[in-house]
User: What shape does this take?
Amino acid sequence: MSAVAPPPPAVAVPERARVVPPRRRPRRRATAARRLLGALAVLVALVWVFPVYWMINSAFLPTNRLRTPEPSFLPFGGTLANFRRVLTDPSFYDAVKVSLAVTGLTLAAAILFAFVAALAISRFRFRGRKSFVVTVLVVQMIPAEGLFISQYQMLDTWQLVNSVLGLSIVYVAAVLPFTVWMLRGFVSGVPIELEEAAMMDGLSRTGAFFRITFPLLAPGLVASGVYGFLQAWNEYTLALVVMTDPAERTLPLWLQGLVEANRATDWGIVMAGAALITVPVIVFFLFVQRRMSSGLVAGAVKG
Amino acid sequence: MSAPPAPAATAPPPPRTSPPATGSTSAAPLRRRRRPLRSRLVPYLLLVPALVPLGVGLGYPLVRQFVFSFQEYGLAQQFGRPAEWVGLDNYVTLLSDPYVWGVIARSIAFCLVNAALTMALGIALAVLMTKVGRGARITLQVGMLLAWGTPVLATMTVWQWLFDSQYGVVNWVLAGPLGMEGQRGHSWLIEPLSFYAVATVIVVWMSVPFVVFTVYAGLLQVPEECMEAAQLDGASSWQRLWGLALPMIKPVLFVVALLQVIWDLRVFTQIHVLQRAGAPTRETHLLGTYIYSLSKEFSIAGAMATIMLVITLVLTTAYIRRMLREEEA
Assistant: This one.
């Protein structure tokens, strides 16, 4: 359920105390209150970070230090053995391959299809446009949880269970509505006048689009690409239903298998596995978060 | 897979497309007539690539499931016997079973409690962000982003480890520093109520960051002049918040709250993984996991899924209406 978010724009909140200079004592009290609130914010941040920290901490600890009455809060004297064991396990690489294939296929199809659909609804007026927009909005709300058995049966009759293509089809359908909606915003954000001006200067309509509008849409394509990546890479429910063969597991299914095999005995290897699938995603997420934000804000402000 | 729309980022309305300039006015009448027709077809052609996967991946299964929910579809049909029409029998079977009502009631209760907690915490933290200094705010943002970016399955894995009965940190904290000796070796997932408590902690932990960032972005959009004017009129900062800022971002709050309700109603992964971690499944089923458990009885599962869809759509209509209104505006 990781969502592409509207942005936390890094605008400093002006200190209102400066606008109306208050008498001395209230101001001092205000700074004290502010400090107290600051401490509270940091405390909340720690609570939220703790599980992520704990995953990484435990991943570095040998089993005998995980199974002690007193937990070890710092990974001093830790070991890389857990990571080594995950990384020498062939099933990990099988899962990476399946995940890469499904994610790649889903992304390519979803971005391309969503892009042309977004063009249609933001650059053309035509009969049925509104019903398409309504469909996109309604479809977004259909819970996969209410459909997966039917989807499984359909893929089964087409012999697409346990296949990358089969899973990708249901993923594309799941990702498309939001991608269309998001790209629609970006396309509308580029003023049509730019294209018209280029057409006045002699470019064809298609030429104007590809030479003028398309480059301006790059941030939008990146943002929706990241959204699709996070969805397909992290998805569990449909993968669980469609990929029943252990040889065709995606990474989340692989991790769940690792948990079930080692829960009672060895949390270290489980945490190493979890950390290995988390760290790249978080790095990616943090890297693009700001860029996505600026794109979305730009789109929203121009109106 | 849930598709989270970004409510705060609704883009400006699409500019009206001016019809493509049709070359010279002296063109032959025939040519002039053909051209509009062709360009009228373009948008439909552009929609085809999106409509095909939607139809195949969602539309067809949806219709199929709906049809099957009025039929008797069991093992014999899997081997080729045509299915029999049974009318509303599957629905009657389900809705006359008190257990099913229990699942529905539990799901709705779980959904409302989680959505309310998430909203309350999210709004509180977003307001907190506007009140603290830069350093504290960035610390909080980074913490939230880390929690948000972690893949669901990794999250579930860590929380299982945190709530582990023997070596989990939660039991250690409760038994050691907090002195609740009874918590040593406590198994969290056996009792349905404590199972749901654990699930709630996890779901809220995962959902709060989205609310915080969206509401914070909304609060920043409140014009500075309004706040200053209110301050000059003597409104305390508490009054400015409750009387001015929050009402002004009501549309954002509305959409975010509705999304929370929808997401928490369809919760599956968290419940499923916790069940597999050793909870009694029958006592802990919510809508999603219950349908999953019915997968062998296809027509009953189809009827149950249809009921779930209806509940979701009823909850969603308000959201769709609002999005459409913004689209029109």
